Amino acid sequence: MSTKKVEFISSRENECIKRVKKLHDKKYREEFKSFIIEGLKLVKEAIDYQIKCVNILIFSQQAKEKYQEFYNECKYLLQDGKIKRVIEVPDKLFEYITTTSTPQGILAECNFIDTDINFIKNLKRVVVVNKLQDPGNLGTLIRCADAFGFDAVITTKGTVDIYNPKAIRATMGSLFHLLIVREVEEGELIKILKDNSFIVYVATPYGDIEVSKIVPDKRFCVVIGNESEGVSDSFTKVATRKIKIPMVGKAESLNAAVASSIVLYELRKR
Amino acid sequence: MSTKKVEFISSRENECIKRVKKLHDKKYREEFKSFIIEGLKLVKEAIDYQIKCVNILIFSQQAKEKYQEFYNECKYLLQDGKIKRVIEVPDKLFEYITTTSTPQGILAECNFIDTDINFIKNLKRVVVVNKLQDPGNLGTLIRCADAFGFDAVITTKGTVDIYNPKAIRATMGSLFHLLIVREVEEGELIKILKDNSFIVYVATPYGDIEVSKIVPDKRFCVVIGNESEGVSDSFTKVATRKIKIPMVGKAESLNAAVASSIVLYELRKR
């Protein structure tokens, strides 16, 4: 039992507040190798699944009252040395550091949780995200990958940052449930997939087989591409199968998040 | 051949400009029984599929240059009496009436296209949307219903307005491809479904059968509920089957648009 206590901070000039504010920007996330999560659900998921990544936990005064039970839990975790710092701030100061327009008053700074690409050796079911641009779409995809039993989500260089606050929010905590590998160079990734005998499914409107006809191999990855341009040629070239979603109406295409979710659903663990 | 010409309007005080601006609000949409669509894709879909609903077509000066070919087509449609009015406005004035932050400079006022609930007699595959709140989710759902061969989308009272500009945008034109019935009272809808021998599938996380196990009847509807509260009791009570999506990971739920898309995909026309 340590004697660590909840700190009270009320100034924007405090180093910790300045640090959290900077984490809105990717540049500083890369520098500090940390990111922000917000809201009761996400912070609980971080604590439950990857508590070691949690650095600083911040409550607004309102949230301290409203989520008293959780606040007390966090105090114990602080005393046990499981969380490094717990900080209380005035509501106004919380509004200054929040990344959302409707803050719950709970925020944590977490260390990066992505792992090395070489972990892929131990995996069987992998989603590769290739240049997706919308953070909401990326987060939704991670949530789906979790729901449908995938082991990991790997993004290639040129994909929106997994640690973007909007992406994080859309994961609803699922980023703490599976392995994340981040911004791998396409050529390197293709070599590693090949070296580890991964079957490569590429999702594309120009696919030659309907996704429902696929019986997934024991070890495979599925590549999801950019919202308007789809998957890079380098992946299309090495694809084992190019898969598509059957469409019968007059719609020319599906929403990107919807299309990729249907693909992950069909390739789910059964 | 009429002698109708493209009009040039430059004042915010013009009746037509005032009318379009008012259509941002549901109140005035109900009063005028018309709504706004924006962008080349949507306006083209309206012209191709339901030209009779198109009242006023507005181009910004920039868009007139950029989409010259389409602009000329519209001039011919005006001369043929197929479109009532085509108007050109300065870019600044277009910015005043647009509903988006990144306008393409093409906008149309269209008459309501929803039809009477009694048309249901002729339909076989219907989506019922029950109190969904997010306009983007509703639009995405209409796009999916189109892609997967449904005949109609019916919303119940308490559902977000189908003519909300964000909903319209997310449909990507699909609202012109199928029948729309709008804001029907739940009790009335249930009676009509029953009178017309519809099988009722209700999508819910508490379903007793996986959606992939369903072989859809010849005539059915599927009810999609509110993002957080799901489907109303009144529908759950009359459900022929309560269907769910299998999930194997640690995610507690799926994004609402994703979940309903997967349900429509599984119940698609084959």
Automatic annotation (TrEMBL), chains A, B:
- Residues in domain RNA 2-O ribose methyltransferase substrate binding? 36-116
Q: Name one Pfam family in it.
A: SpoU_methylase
Q: Which GO terms describe its molecular function?
A: methyltransferase activity
The keyword Transmembrane helix is assigned to this record:
no
Query: What Gene Ontology biological process does one annotation of this record name?
Result: methylation
Asked if the Swiss-Prot or TrEMBL record annotates the protein with the keyword RNA-binding, the reply is no
List all membrane-crossing ranges: none
Keyword vocabulary terms for this entry: Methyltransferase, Transferase
Against InterPro entries, the record matches this protein to: Alpha/beta_knot_MTases, MRM3-like_sub_bind, Ribosomal_eL30-like_sf, rRNA_Methyltransferase, SpoU_MeTrfase, SpoU_subst-bd, tRNA_m1G_MTases_N
| Coiled coil stretches, renumbered | none
Classification via CDD domains: SpoU-like_rRNA-MTase
The record's similarity note reads: Belongs to the class IV-like SAM-binding methyltransferase superfamily. RNA methyltransferase TrmH family.
Q: What is this protein called?
A: RNA methyltransferase
